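Technical annex B. To support the medicinal chemistry partners, we prepared a structural model of the target in complex with 3-isopropylmalic acid, based solely on the information shown next.
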Amino acid sequence: MHKIAILPGDGIGPEIVAQAVKVLRALGRHGVALELVEAPVGGAAYDAAGDPLPATTLDLARAADAILFGSVGAPRYDALPRPKRPEQALLRLRKELGLFANLRPATVHPELVNASTLRPEVVSGLDILILRELTGDIYFGQPRGIRAAADGGREGFDTMRYTEAEIERIARVGFDAARKRGRRLCSVDKANVLETSQLWREVVTAVGAGYPDVALSHMYVDNAAMQLLRDPKQFDVIVTGNMFGDILSDEASMLTGSIGMLPSASLDERGKGLYEPIHGSAPDIAGKNLANPLATILSAAMMLRYSLDNEAAAARVEAAVRKVLARGLRTADLHEPGTERVGTGEMGDAVVAALG
Ligand code: IPM
Ligand code: MG
């Protein structure tokens, strides 16, 4: 029996997580025994307990075998002091649980080739993996702050930093992932300007010596942003730091037609993970049965694969999603003439029905 922490969060989080929970419960019929325990996180937890990551929620996340996470954040929390903001819950979970390896696959389902803003021939068959380091970089580097500046005004400052050990462990995950796929790893940095990136490039290159079967290349992040639009299929696995990975993974999501389709896994050294859609809480459509639950359902599939070691169940969920798309069901984000528009709940029900 695996224990799963269910953290729905804010905005569309609760409704999309509810669909993934339906799918996980339905897998019980296929012999997947899961204990699902829900806890508040983000703005919802701040409202309930005055803390976006209450100790009880953190304890549950620590005790669980895996975490299914929705989304956090809403405009009404933006004026709170930083430690109370919903996003801190996610950043603290990542840091405290050591979830340093963030896998963000971007694949184009054949049914959705026309949903991308790029020409079909540029994206059809796309299958890339962005591997983002998740617990270091300018996101967590100290010192940081807002202070009095020499000119009498104020200045804001953050610190970009990576240790060799941090770079080495994410590089290994990148090479190992590439080995299981197309054996090509592109490391993205800004080594022409940043010291952090120069060290990044040296360490990734050194780790690469142990993987002669994987072709390693390096690319500056500005060029990578351009190449992702020009010819995304040139990539197999991209490994990069926290900040560049945040930006490039949102960009890559649009190659697939909708950010509502992309799942992610954030893993620690032992494969325990937090699974979440890469999109945010979308407060503008929250509670309207409009959100696309597929990124969350596909995140649950990644959870089955990476943390619960159940490839069969993961493949079953992914096949169900493909079946539903092939039948022409689409949420509002992907609706086009000739397809059938459904709500969040109906999409979840359709995936459950397609599980067989
Ligand atoms: C993401 C999000 C988060 C990040 C925010 C919500 C803190 O954009 O997971 O990509 O910047 O990492
Ligand atoms: Mg982001």
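Notes passed to the chemistry partners:
The two ends are 22 Å apart (CA to CA).
The mean pLDDT is 96.
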